[in-house]
């Protein structure tokens, strides 16, 4: 049961360039609104990946010269940025190992460190995430604080429990650092517990990489709730799937199943063979979100309320009962 989703020709071209092996010809670029193409790619944080794949597939002669120069500049700057990222990852690795703290770099930092991409400039990365055992969390934080990093905000522990401590920032470093004690949001942590992640990485298991790639966006960025998708996450998945395979049992996990329902609908994957009732409802909702702007806005409005209300309630309780957090908020508001 697939609906014919109403994708713009720009989005269809983006999918072809990034995620498929189909031959691309001049007619694919005919009538393309390049401003819209760049807007979509920018929103999904894949401008460098788009440029790299355009050059790799020798399609750059189809681009206007000013656009080609712009994309090359973005890509070259991202290469420089990620070279610095590698240096900072190596610095953190040495620091943590010297102090006997077991850790696992995750997401973009992990992929760069383990050479997932054909070119280091493909992936845009905001910060460095790594995972430690909860018993090592304070030790890891204190270690970074002693080495030039500072807290970006006060931590909360009583009611609003984060899966990581607030970002640590070092004015002499380009990237901020997030130290996780769980990789997924607190109430979804059992889908991929930290202890399991650390254990699997030590045993050199590989399935966790695929699960983590999918669940990070589906859970932490509310992809499942909002039925949204990220081409950056899908691109990572496609590259990872060339090395590792998702297990059939994992398709029973709703968050992972939703990911494949959407990527199947986009024509990127072909994983879900039989649809249950919930699958059909998900696809109907996804279809309406793609085909009706009014429904899209209403759906997103409701989902945003559902996302924000529990968080604000827990923050309110934290404000009432946690003096440090209360002082932080009052200072921020200059009261």
Total number of helices: 15
Question: How many strands appear in the DSSP assignment?
Answer: 5
Strand content: 5-15%
Strand order, main sheet: write it out: 1-2-5
Helix content: 55-70%
Number of domains: 1
Poorly predicted runs: none
What is the structural class? mainly alpha
- Euclidean distance between termini CA atoms: 56 Å
Describe the structure.
The chain has 335 residues and is mainly α. It has one domain. The chain has helices spanning 9-19, 26-29, 34-43, 47-56, 65-98, 107-113, 137-146, 194-202, 207-220, 223-226, 231-241, 254-265, 277-291, 293-321, 323-332, and strands at residues 103-106, 127-132, 150-151, 168-169, 176-180. The strands form two sheets. It has a three-stranded mixed beta sheet with strand order 1-2-5, sandwiched between helices. Helix 12 (254-265) crosses helix 13 and helix 13 crosses helix 14. The longest helix is centred in the first third of the chain and has 34 residues, at 65-98. The chain is globular. The relative contact order is 0.10.
Secondary-structure map:
Elements: H1 9-19, H2 26-29, H3 34-43, H4 47-56, H5 65-98, E1 103-106, H6 107-113, E2 127-132, H7 137-146, E3 150-151, E4 168-169, E5 176-180, H8 194-202, H9 207-220, H10 223-226, H11 231-241, H12 254-265, H13 277-291, H14 293-321, H15 323-332
Parallel strand pairs: 2-5
Antiparallel strand pairs: 1-2, 3-4
Helix pairs in contact: 1-3, 4-5, 9-11, 9-12, 12-13, 13-14, 14-15
């Amino acid at each position: 049961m697939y609906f014919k989703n109403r994708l713009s020709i720009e989005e269809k071209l983006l999918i072809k360039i990034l995620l498929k092996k189909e031959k691309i010809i001049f007619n694919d670029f005919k009538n393309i609104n390049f401003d819209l193409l760049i807007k979509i790619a920018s929103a999904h944080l894949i401008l460098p990946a788009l440029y790299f794949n355009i050059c790799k597939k020798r399609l750059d002669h189809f681009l206007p010269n000013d656009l080609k120069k712009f994309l090359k500049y973005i890509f070259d700057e991202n290469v420089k940025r990620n070279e610095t990222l590698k240096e900072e990852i190596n610095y953190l690795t040495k620091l943590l190992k010297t102090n006997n703290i077991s850790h696992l770099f995750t997401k973009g930092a992990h992929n760069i460190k383990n050479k997932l991409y054909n070119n280091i400039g493909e992936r845009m990365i905001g910060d460095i995430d790594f995972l430690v055992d909860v018993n090592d969390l304070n030790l890891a934080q204190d270690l970074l604080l002693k080495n030039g990093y500072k807290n970006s905000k006060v931590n909360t522990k009583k009611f609003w429990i984060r899966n990581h401590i607030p970002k640590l920032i070092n004015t002499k470093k380009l990237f901020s650092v997030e130290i996780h004690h769980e990789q997924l949001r607190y109430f979804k942590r059992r889908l991929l517990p930290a202890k399991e992640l650390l254990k699997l990485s030590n045993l050199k298991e590989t399935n966790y990489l695929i699960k983590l790639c999918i669940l990070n966006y589906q859970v932490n960025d509310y992809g499942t709730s909002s039925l949204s998708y990220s081409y950056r996450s899908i691109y990572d998945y496609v590259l990872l799937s060339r090395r590792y395979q998702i297990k059939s049992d994992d398709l029973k996990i709703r968050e992972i199943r939703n990911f494949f329902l959407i990527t199947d609908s986009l024509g990127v994957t072909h994983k879900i063979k039989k649809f249950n009732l919930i699958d059909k409802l998900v696809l109907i909702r996804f279809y309406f979100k793609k085909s009706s702007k009014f429904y899209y806005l209403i759906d997103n409005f409701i989902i945003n309320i559902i996302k924000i209300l529990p968080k604000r309630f827990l923050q309110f309780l934290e404000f009432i009962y946690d003096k440090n957090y209360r002082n932080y908020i009052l200072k921020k508001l200059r009261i």
